Amino acid sequence: MASLNKALLNYCIALGDDSLTLGHRLSEWCRNGPFLEEDLALTNVSLDFIGRARLFYTYAAEVEDQGRSEDDLAYLRDCRDYRNFLINELPNGDFAFTMARQLMVDTFDMGFFEGLTRSSDTTLAAIAAKAIKESRYHLRRSQDWIICLGDGTDESHERTQKAINDLWAYTAEMFEMSGEEQQLVDAGVAVDRATLKTDWTTSMQGILKQATLDIPTSDWAIGGGREGQHTEHLGFLLAELQFLQRTYPGQQW
Amino acid sequence: MNQQNLPLFEIFIRSKRGLDHRHVGSLHAENSEQALDYARDVYLRRSEGVSIWVVRSSDITASQESDVESFLDPMDDKPYRHATHYKLPKEVDNM
Question: B9 to each of A230, B13, B51, how far by Cα in Å?
Fold first, then answer.
């Protein structure tokens, strides 16, 4: 039982980390969006992810029951303690890269949160029910944008294809299970992410085809996020995200 | 992307069931579907409505300020057209 509790804690933290890192990346578009309306839309999506992170961290803190808060989990852990997929921490790149990543993550989230709504853990199921509504809208946006960019000008097509190619190696990690997570699947708590890959690939093929983009064939893959092995980019992200709490511990406003 | 190239849309929001859609502002978008998406993000961030209409600004035909004299003023001297001349029974509170 104790080991299952630890597994649940790690699970919630990892899901919170996925949401927080991507939410932070999207927030970097604030005032940098290609035009006002899209700037607002991007930051709105960012807030959805940050809201999710709060829910997962709050629940993690409750499961841990050691007096740590959601803020402690977000602001006072270092790179090696973060458990997010690498795809979420990569720098935004150009607009095509940001939207290509959204398409990959949003498509994954649709399958993942749909599964999580059936979790035997009622808190996780409730978070998933909220998240899937948001993801449905996120996906509508990223899907429309990728089709618009891929089937757009020569330059937008080229940039989007490059983004898809560059990101592809980072998607494999989303479908790799750890032993600890498998325990939670067996207990009816977690989603078996390995089973989501077929549907995800089919959806991606459909959208990329419509966008006149090629689906990458390389099966070179990179991972390690769930074990705390990150790209060099996460440190910089956390430096900005955590600066205030690190410099003025316990500061509030 | 150059915003100058994006068409302008007028946004109408129904704040709750039973009320009319009201004009709330305008925004730029590639097409009407995208205008709906942006309208949601720009105008409904705090659950201000239950329904959105978008219409291309160029599709609106508007009366001209310079025409006011011939177009709208003539109604002013026909007070008998105003319902205020009718005596309403007490039972009718709001008309």
Answer: 44, 13, 16
Residue B1 neighbours by CB distance under 10 Å:
13
pLDDT tens per residue, range A159-168: 999 999 999 9
Note whether A35 contacts B: Cβ–Cβ < 8 A. Answer: yes
Report the alpha-carbon distance of residue A115 to residue A122 in Å, rounded: 13
- Residue B11 has a CB neighbour count (10 Å cut-off) of 25
Q: What is the pLDDT of residues A129-138, one digit of tens each?
A: 999 999 999 9
Q: How many CB atoms lie within 10 A of CB A211?
A: 24
Sign of CA dihedral A64, A69, A74, A79: negative
- Which DSSP string corresponds to A226-244? GGT---THHHHHHHHHHHH
Q: What pTM value is reported for the model? A: 0.88
Chain B nearest-CA distance from A44, in A, is 7
For residue A44, the chain B residues in CB contact (below 8 A) are 41, 45
Chain B contact present for A47, CB below 8 A: no
CATH code linked to domain A2-247? 1.20.1260.10
Give the Cβ contact number of residue A114 at 10 Å.
18
| Domain B1-60 fold | Ubiquitin-like (UB roll) (3.10.20)
- Order of all β-strands in the sheet with B8-14: B21-28, B8-14, B51-56
The structural domains of chain A, with segments of one domain joined by +, span: 2-247
Residue B31 vs residues A9, A66, A221, B7: alpha-carbon distances, Å: 45, 52, 37, 8
